[in-house]
Amino acid sequence: MNTFLSLTLIALLLSILAGLIRVFRGPAPAERMLAAQLFGTAAVAILLVLSQLMQMPALLDVAMVFALLAAVTLVGFVVLASRGVR
Amino acid sequence: MTDPLVIFDVALALAIVALAVAALSVRDLFAMIVLFVVFGLLSALAWVRLSAPDVALAEAAIGAGVTGALLLKTLHHLRYVSGTLGQQAAYGVTPLTPVPIGVTLANAIFCGLITLGLAVAYLGAPAAGPGFDALVAEAMPRSGVDHPVTGVLLNFRAYDTLMEVVVLLAAVVAVWQIERGVSDAPAPVLGEVWQGFARLALPATVVVGTYLLWVGAEAPGGAFQGGAVLAAVGLLLLLTRAYVPQPTHRGIARGAFVLGTGVFALVALLVASGGRVAFEYPLEHAKTLILLIEGMVTISIAVTLAALFHGREPVAQTKGGRDDT
Amino acid sequence: MLEIAAAAFIALGTLFFVAGTVGLLRFPDIFCRLHALTKADGLGLALIAVGVALLAGTAGAVFRIALVWFFVAVASATCGHLIARYARHGVRHD
Amino acid sequence: MTPDLIYGLCGVAVFGIGLVGALCAQDRLRRVLALKLCSVGAGFLLVVGAWRTPPATPDPVPHALVITGIVVMVSATAVALALIRRLQSLEADDER
């Protein structure tokens, strides 16, 4: 079971790394924000799996904070990336 | 066959290094900040793997979240001032003076040597030093809390934490000195979906922040993490201009800035007046005192971080003073 | 039995994550990418949460996992909406 | 290969990258960011020093130090960014 969970973690991490290509290629800030949203969700998923794998229930709190902050950061990106009208 | 978890660790470490390089070399500054936030996120994951969930919480909330927001706000301001806000991509916003290639090369070699020395020192260091584990484990029953990191932060090394709160206070004083003016930027229109979400998310965030503060006594969490999560509420309110700091609110803000430092120092003095060392809380009251200090420090941290994000001191508007983000 | 079910949920969830990322990389414009990513990720996280909750056992852990899932679901829907608004006509200020 | 070795080397590398960035980067914003990278690298080394092979629990003192360091770093960053914003405003006024 633990091997399987580790493999899951690797797949999720690879999915984050693939998303980085989108941050580089852009072209618009919207694409980069979208990639940031992927990272937030994937990091929460990694933390959920890790909490089981490392037997640390405290990681669920960390996952909760990640979820909250991902939302806040994304709103920051949307509001402060405004081009043109201000 | 190697443990797949080792592969995960190696991949994560490589990703972190690659992100550091990418954040410093990508041309677009907006992409730089996104990459930096992802870097913070992945470092937090790495610290979770090193069984340091407290540090991971602090890094995710303060190191990635608040710092990212600060950088983004500054970028927005710089682009506004330099009149490049309308452009799609955010290339350099500060004027560049060409540096001779030799100087850059010399700098890089110098840094390389330092890093090499660090790597050699790290690899040559004894595998596991004595550390403080035994000392802390022995003293824990006398600390009044069950979570070692909270015990260290608020009891055994409380001087450090007091000084840290003072540093935050000094930072907000400095920022208020550097920047002045009142915000007259209009509120962004985010639509009805956002309104509904904010009604749910803001109270939920306050609950999570308070929960982190409370759970800090026995599990990862505590004043800094709780304060940072509460600061996120302030950041959201300031970002969406649901709250615009007014000059008349300065008194309350100042009170909140010094609240943490004040209560912390007061408790230390009261304890010391009872013939003890400054932070040697009497055992029967230790948990109450620690929770009191943590609660006040949390409020201070939340308000101070939000004020650092807002930047300028809200002063009464002068004529033609249109200088803000 | 429980473990096999949990493993199946987690594997399926991971598959959705990978699919979402492929969509982010391969689809032609921002709205297609948005459509692929937010939905696939939301479902992926829900499946992984169910799997981990099956393994976790204690009521407190299950409750917190449910909370995390609920918040991510609501937040990612809102953020997807905000990004779409932004991509369509920037952020108006008034 | 244990996590402490992997992440320790990662920390050294991040510190070095940050140092190069702080000295060689041209843009002010990027320099501040590079210094932040340095602090994360240093944090890595402290957390690695605290790590003990599970099931032993890690040493809490370096953890507390890193948390303190993160908060001090965000204060320093905020002041540096305020200075950058002020500098830019002053330069823009000079050009007019």
From TrEMBL, chain A:
Keyword match Zinc: no
Record keywords, A-Z: Cell membrane, Membrane, Transmembrane, Transmembrane helix, Transport
This protein's record includes keyword NAD: no
Membrane topology: Multi-pass membrane protein
GO molecular-function term, one example from the UniProt record: sodium:proton antiporter activity
Major location (coarse): membrane
Listed transmembrane segments: 34-51, 58-81
Name listed for the protein in its UniProt record: Multisubunit sodium/proton antiporter MrpF subunit
From TrEMBL, chain B:
Transmembrane segments: 6-24, 29-49, 55-72, 105-125, 156-176, 197-217, 223-244, 256-277, 289-309
Cellular component GO terms held in the UniProt record: plasma membrane
Keywords, sorted A to Z: Cell membrane, Membrane, Transmembrane, Transmembrane helix
InterPro entries: CPA3_antiporter_subunitB, MnhB, MrpA_C/MbhD
Protein name as it appears in the record: Putative MnhB-related membrane protein
Organism: Roseinatronobacter thiooxidans
Protein location: Cell membrane
Recorded topology in the membrane: Multi-pass membrane protein
Keyword match Ligase: no
Domain Na+/H+ antiporter MnhB subunit-related protein per the UniProt entry, residue ranges: 197-297
Pfam families documented for this protein: MbhD (PF13244), MnhB (PF04039)
Family membership: Belongs to the CPA3 antiporters (TC 2.A.63) subunit B family.
Every MrpA C-terminal/MbhD domain range: 15-79
TrEMBL record, chain C:
Keywords from the UniProt entry: Membrane, Transmembrane, Transmembrane helix
Listed transmembrane segments: 6-25, 37-56, 62-84
Domain of life: Bacteria
The keyword Coiled coil belongs to this UniProt entry's keyword annotation: no
Pfam family, any one: PhaG_MnhG_YufB
InterPro entries recorded: PhaG_MnhG_YufB (IPR005133)
A GO MF term: sodium:proton antiporter activity
Residues annotated as signal peptide: none
Protein name: Multicomponent Na+:H+ antiporter subunit G
UniProtKB/TrEMBL annotation, chain D:
Alphabetical list of Pfam families matching this protein: Oxidored_q2
Localization, UniProt: Membrane
Keyword annotations from UniProtKB, A to Z: Membrane, Transmembrane, Transmembrane helix
InterPro entries linked: NUOK/Mnh_C1-like (IPR039428)
Matching Gene3D superfamilies: 1.10.287.3510
Membrane topology: Multi-pass membrane protein
Gene Ontology cellular-component terms listed: membrane
Membrane-spanning parts: 6-25, 32-51, 63-84
Protein name: Multicomponent Na+:H+ antiporter subunit C
